[in-house]
Records
---
Amino acid sequence: MTLDLPLIWAVIIATAVLLYVLLDGFDLGVGILFPFAVSPADRDVMMDTIAPVWDGNETWLVLGGGGLFAAFPLAYAAVMPALYVPVILMLLALVLRGVAFEFRLRGRRRGKAFWTAAFAVGSLAAAIAQGFILGGFIQGITLDGGRFGGQPFDWLTPYTVLVAVGMVAGYALLGATWLVWKTETELHGDARRWAWVAGFATAALLAAVSIATLFVHPQVAERWGYGAGGIDFAALLPRLPIPLLGLAGLALLSMGLLRRSHGLPHLGASLVFLSGYIGLAAGFFPNIVPYDMTFRQAANQDNALGLMLVGVAILLPVILGYTAWVYWLFRGKVTPDAGYH
């Protein structure tokens, strides 16, 4: 049996991006929530909750970006010039928050305040940049002969601003529910309040982005059964479980917060993100550069894809195993005296 290597690599990259959003999303969210903490001690605990995992979470970004470059070079060559500005902003922001993470622990009074602000700014800037990348990707990339044929700031539109704000709210929700899961005492109560606010904001913005997307590109609307002739239920019904999954996530989030559960809110928030991600894929698949280049057209040669697949088959179980082990090792609540060293 011949392996469908382009499809396998499309699934690998899509999975890596999803894992990055879910995992790095909550530690970016913790940084976004930094200004709302009532004391430096609470910020110390917030940082301690992500200290063992934050750098490992970014491994999935490397796999997604590197995999796109190696497995789908034509897509990489088209997407990167279209999104250079937000991509560079994201990378600089991630560098800033990484430096701030380490330096904050060793700074004195003024230095610690500076690096605290840098960590919050870096987290917020990274989330906004990722929102612009996502929004620019969804609204489509202008191609001319398989190459980027648009302008450097095509990604900056009212639609992408809306997506960026939604991304910030969603990451704040993931961060808040992570803190609900990992903290105690007053900070735990604050995290529950943040989760309520971020949950309402995320639900409203997700609905707004979903509706706006139907107007941004007619092809997406047609995929979801909306056209000039009205609603096509034959196209809509097979995709109806996707928004229902999102509604189930919001219900689980609300139920978990009302019942003062510790883990259910984070599970609910993750399901909301999963629903949005699947809905995004349903809107443009099999295109890898919306809406004019499929993943098969952009794929590398089969011999190159096969050789890389051997390496991934070895490394991916190691990465997954290490990630699972770290999360298991540092399970449970984080107390003020835990200390990150």
Note: The beta strands are 143-144, 147-148, 226-227, 230-231, 287-289, 293-294.
---
Amino acid sequence: MLKVTGLTKIFGGLKAVDDASLEVAEGRIVALIGPNGAGKTTLFACIAGFQSINAGRVEFSGNDITARPVHEIARQGMVRTFQITQPFAKLTVHENIAVGAYQEYIDRDEAWEHARRIADQVGMGQILDQPAADLTVAGRKRLELARTLATGPKLLLLDEVMAGLNPSEIIDIIDIIQKIRASGVTVLLIEHVMQAVMSLSEHIYVLSYGKIIANGAPHEVVNDPAVIEAYLGRGAAEQMAKEANHA
């Protein structure tokens, strides 16, 4: 469904993303992980059209979408969430979700009803009339999910939707994402919560200093020496192996 080839993004003299390639097959949940500052959000922004790229190619459903405007990419079915949620604070939950629904439905009543269904899907059906400004962090995360789902995506790019949540809230979001995939939406997610990464993803890509340094099944990636050192520093993998042997 998504194929990124040799994507490079340069800011001044810094290669924020360096020749990165990845693929996401339809119907899967794929994770993109890496240390802070690795370039994950920049890569997301480039894929979704929010940032121009210096080199590379992005294909979605067999179409070259490189350098296409964000609204065109969204209409084709690829949408993203943001780390920092920014709902329309003066609007209700229902109105916020309906904003996304208008991409799918021209008729107001149809958009309104679609927004109601999406709210139920993410567990917000009981607070439709609540102002977005009054939501908790977890509530804003759900609303961000709902607004993107309301556009009718085929591929959803989730940027740290679990950041700042407590353990029970994380479990709730994991369940929602699993249901989203079950409804037919493919998911590519950036996440630091490894519980979520291991529970959800079928394939993981690891980004470090802008480069993809590993990819594979979750159990393979978390035991990869290059990945361990990217997170814990040089020599960490060797030290961990020594400790395991002496245990």
Note: DSSP finds ten helices and ten strands in the chain.
---
Amino acid sequence: MTVVREDVQRITVLGAGSWGTAFAKVLGDAGRDVTMWARRPEVAEEITSANTNNSYLPGVALPGRITATADPRAALAGAQAVVLAVPSQSLRANLTEWRGMLPPEAILVSLAKGVELGTLKRMSEVITEIAEVRDGEVVVVSGPNLAREIAQSQPSAAVIACADHERAVAIQKASFNQYFRPYTNTDVIGCELGGACKNVIALSCGMAAGLGLGTNTMATLITRGLAEMARLGTKLGADPLTFAGLAGVGDLVATCSSPLSRNRTFGEHLGRGETVEQAQLAGGGQVAEGVMSCQSIRELAMSLGVDMPITDAMFRVCHEGVDPRKAGAELLGRSQKHEWS
């Protein structure tokens, strides 16, 4: 077992999107030296020379401790921790390219929230497989973490989860600052599933908003969505208490409620009658994570015999073209049951 250093000072963030950049700022404001990898050289140059990343977080000033490069080997040189900040469905391909460059002693940290299509693996499982590290060594960051609010130094909290508690503590210390309060947890399964499933439930809340529905509907979707997450997580061995915490209900409320949430906004376009393609164009050409996750999470739930009706409805809307009004009517028309059954 690798000896874990608690004084992690040199950290690499692979990915310069909004959340990767916001987390790099968190680390820089915690006094760490951060090197970012950006796919586009012009983004790397802007981060280094101007201390901004206006492609993803316009108007946000980044700490001078952050530099960036488009060369992954240069970015990874000497890193004590490596933060993987690429979308969940591209993590495998990217990590396959990077694995020979990873410093052998570095702590691997995942920011991605999703379940991989095809394999139905959580992101930490993908990392363990591709990077060939021991089970339980990957650190996961989850919670109510809307990138723009964190980048604006608004008070926020997160969960740093790892089966190896020492690794979680090392990243907790490396990311703690005046506005970002991280808590540790050893329930990686629960934290990852909470982060993946909330994107799907946020789609449903966005659709409800697009249909002109109100607070009662939103509260119902959030609460019943939480029940779906907990059923799936418990089946896979997660601690039910995790879903009552920051990585569960905390992340769910933030993502379902905020106009800053890409998943909620994407769902709102669908609720207004737009197609997935039209919603994608409105979102700058990006598909929300929940659109892909509803497929993989649905398949995972079906393989385990877990009932997830909201997830199933989102899959049918996004991938089978079912009208959101029809999907909502079918949810309301389901057979009556006890709340906890």
Note: The longest strand covers residues 156-161.
